[in-house]
DNA sequence: GTTTATAATAAGGTTATACTTATAATAAAC
DNA sequence: GTTTATTATAAGTATAACCTTATTATAAAC
């Protein structure tokens, strides 16, 4: 087991470069005996002579040449490491691990793209999962941040809202209610609603809304993706309630219409969430700030 | 300027591997506070936290992950280095820098081949030059060993003879003296001799011999290569005196004949030479021993 | 020979390193 | 709540790391 020190390697490199103990001592602001000692210790450590002494000149031995190569390589690694760590400090580089719930997938990539555009060198790992999985990833500390609708009441979680999440009623373009304005909520009582699985934030918001208005609605097909609901609504199987963000495309192309029901859109909020006490990386922190300050504005702009 | 130690990296690696200070302490046969300290120092050095502490669990930070990569790379370098140095020690590997005078080129490669065959992993750099250049390389410490005929009287040089170097008189096969035996030296007085340049070891040995026998010979063409002399002798331009080793091929194929002159062959010796006080590498030393102990025998064998 | 340049060696001292033990703090598990 | 598992902190210590100055040894240059 050899116990060499980085100091020894550093001194050795200097001597090997100058082929002189005295020059090395000058360079390192040491006395010559100090250099002699370091080299001696290094030679003792590896049990091989590193220099040959012929007259006043010294030469590298075969072992010395070999060691020099490795020593240089290690120095390079250390230098690279220093740069890498400095970059991390300065946020010139870094990795953002983030998970978003499925519905957020309709706008999160857009925001991430903007963020990456601003902070070159930041790499992002985006995971899209259902609410349950996202929460597990949070508690397992697998991710820095999460974006979701309703934050859990769990005390181990910090969350903050950063953008409105308007829930709208969508219908196929040929639906009779599409022509009407200020549709009373009561009118929805006759309609069939396609709903997300229970436990979904959208689903519970919807149920709370109708409960508040004392309305019983028909629940049609129950699916676990918003995508399926959009398809089903287009096919005329019923109405849907969903985050307006998730339906931008279909609304724009006219495949779906928003019904102007009184009390809608239900304004909920997107939240950025992290495990409590988690020390956010500078990148994660920057993204969190970015969301809080600019997400709403950016999403608004992109609509126009 | 960051002053981290290999110890810190080693401890860090262990903690990163176990994701536990206590497990790392066990592995390293330390107490847990000792580990805490090393990590703390490391974190102070790089001014970045390496671990996150969430509850009783710890996790690597981004910086920690980054550092781990570099740390592992450095450890690998060190391990590789250790192996390389061990190989050097054990002569499993190594480089032999050797120069030989031109005339030795007729047998030196053969010996080197045998040597390399025995010590796999040894690489050889063989340089063939005239005596003067070889000596310069020796004093400049560019080579480990040299092979030459007459070693210089220089006190800075260690030399030892390892093999006979018989100088013979060669003639073209149709030369009248070829049929005779025990030719008296006097008979050569009428012959023309093709000679090497003055300063050559062969040339001076020849001159000493004829001077001792008080014979004046005719000197024909003077060249700086033995090869040219062999060609000239075959062409009938005169006789030659040269190391028998350099003419093996021509003798075997009958293109040249050895004249059985009294007092011949003149026995001189091949010497292995190194700069005084030079600490020979294990490979160089092994080759030197190899020459002293086995070269003569091997050359003898190869003749048959 | 003397001078000059270089490295080795010896002696000594300060500091920092790398631990230890003991105890406190924290959070998870029960 | 109590217990258990973990890390942090504090205080103390032996030692080795690292350097200095002073001197010696060596060989090259003059």
From TrEMBL, chains A, B:
Protein name from the UniProt record: LysR family transcriptional regulator
Keywords in alphabetical order: DNA-binding, Transcription, Transcription regulation
Family: Belongs to the LysR transcriptional regulatory family.
InterPro entries, per database record: LysR_HTH_N (IPR000847), LysR_subst-bd (IPR005119), WH-like_DNA-bd_sf (IPR036388), WH_DNA-bd_sf (IPR036390)
CDD domains xrefs: PBP2_CbbR_RubisCO_like
Family annotation (Pfam families): HTH_1 (PF00126), LysR_substrate (PF03466)
Example of a GO MF term: DNA-binding transcription factor activity
Domain HTH lysR-type, chain residue ranges per copy: 4-61
Recorded superkingdom: Bacteria
